Amino acid sequence: MKQSYEQLIFLQDRSIGFKAIIAIHNTKLGPALGGCRMWQYTSDENAVLDALRLAQGMTYKSAISGLPYGGGKAVILGNPSQGPRELLFRALGQKIHELQGAYITGMDLGTTVSDMDWVRLETSFVTDISGSLGAVSELTAKMTAYGVYLGIKASLKRAYGSETVKNKIIAVQGLGKVGYQLCHFLKQDGAQLVVTDINPKLLKKAVDDFGASARKPHDIISVPCDVFSPCALGGILNDDTIGQLNCSIIAGAANNQLAESRHGEMIHGLGILYAPDYVINAGGIIVTSVELDGGDAAAAQWKTEKISNTLTNVFSKADAQGISTAEAADQIAEQLIGS
Ligand code: NAD
């Protein structure tokens, strides 16, 4: 991935305990779209790096999905489960309003619909507010899961010659909003699910609801399976974990799965088919984009179904040029962005 950013904004107001970053990566194809994450980072530097990488990922995700948007991200530094939030999200909203539409925010890890409602009191450049398409019935997460499910089928077709999910062993890491829905789609098709989550309640629910086999969080990476599906946090594919993989395919919802770009080459070298994260997990941003353009849930589903084709094109380009799928996706996105 090429790195150059349009804006990096630091915000601080000690009187209300507010510290945040807005990163705008690229607006060539349209306003920068990307949610707001709230997280307790171990350092300010890590927060900046996270915002930058996530913003860039959003540019590539929108471009390769054919959406008229660029990429950006906001992060609020803080514990998402502690303290009052109204003043923090209103302060963020004020800054977003000053940017006059260059950046449009929404929900991400650690933020909720009610947080976005606070932002909405200050600016209209926000999605995922109460009553929005994305918020209703958690459509954003559901469509993300649906896109990943279709992407898994496209990956099975590429690796095995058939998209049949029945009796395939699929290891799902993370059973939150997306991971749980994904298990639902896969179980309906007869997959054998092996699952994990650091939250024991979610793990038990997946075992009870889907007859899934449970693993401890650190064991999931080495489970012998057809598909490893990372649906928790980013950076899961790194120097420590790649050698432990025991799968034919990696296809999941988490953003920034590769700790560094070079890990895409390492996975390619092992003969594992990697479905690039920002291609396969675009269902959520598709919902947001469709809503901003006045569309409905049916339009979002129709556009999400195109993920299979996009992914197949990435696989074909990688095969034709003898490059990794991660590199092939980056090249397609960069051509579309014109960088
Ligand atoms: P979530 O917070 O609802 O779920 C994440 C789950 O992962 C939680 O249940 C958490 O307990 C679990 N988890 C965290 N660390 C873990 C570990 N080490 N091992 C096992 N489980 C662990 O989030 P979500 O909305 O389901 O999103 C999942 C991933 O997909 C995130 O990386 C997110 O950025 C990405 N994503 C989400 C969407 C969306 O629409 N929600 C869209 C695109 C990408």
Bound molecules: nicotinamide-adenine-dinucleotide
> How many domains make up the 3D coordinates?
2
Q: What's the tally of helices?
A: 12
**Helix-residue proportion:** 40-55%
Low-confidence stretches: none
Report the biggest beta sheet as strand number plus sense, adding barrel if it closes. 6 strands, mixed
Question: Which quaternary structure do these chains form?
Answer: single chain
What is the level-2 CATH architecture name of the largest domain? Answer: 3-Layer(aba) Sandwich
- The radius of gyration over CA amounts to 19 Å
Ends distance? 10 Å
CATH level 1 class label of the largest domain: Alpha Beta
Shape: globular
The count of β-strands is 12
CATH topology type of the largest domain: Rossmann fold
Mean pLDDT: 96
The CATH superfamily of the largest domain turns out to be: NAD(P)-binding Rossmann-like Domain
SSE sequence, one letter per element: EEEEHEHEHHEHEHEEEHEHHHHH
Q: What are the main properties of this structure?
A:
Rossmann fold, binds nicotinamide-adenine-dinucleotide, 12 helices, six-stranded parallel β-sheet, six-stranded mixed β-sheet, 2 domains, alpha/beta, 339 residues
